Amino acid sequence: ICRLIFRSSGTASQWVQRNKYFHMLSRGVERDGWKFVLLARFSPLPSYIINYALAATSIGFLLDFLLPTVIGCLPMILQNTSIGSLASAAVASASGGSEKSRVWSYVFPLLGIASSIIISLRIKKYSSEIAISDDSPTGS
């Protein structure tokens, strides 16, 4: 629905094209397509904001949007699972659970935190590259 609104409404598309953040998003989609969507899925922005923003671009659906979305949702699923595992380990340790399950319950959240930091740094580097390429002169 959002894609139809942005493509059929002249006012909405003009507003979006004037926005500097959308311009960066649009350049990223044009430049890298599925890579950009995958990094966007790893960002801390809520999915619905990313969905609306990507609907206003010229991104393809299956390979550039759907596949990276499915892959990009996996870390969040793993993070939620590890939080559940940590809660389970807390209950198990209170009731005298095994030492092995207690160790694993701390490993998964630490991996989740480390991956979040690495992904955040990658997103920052990527957005800086797009901003620099926008500022550089195009004619050589």
TrEMBL record:
- What UniProt keywords are attached to this protein's entry? Membrane, Transmembrane, Transmembrane helix
Q: Say if the entry is tagged with keyword tRNA-binding.
A: no
Q: Name one GO cellular component term.
A: membrane
Q: Which residues cross the membrane?
A: 49-78, 103-123
Show where the VTT domain sits: 11-85
**Pfam families with a match to the protein in the record:** VTT_dom (PF09335)
Q: Which PANTHER family match?
A: SNARE ASSOCIATED GOLGI PROTEIN FAMILY
Q: What is the protein name given in its UniProt record?
A: VTT domain-containing protein
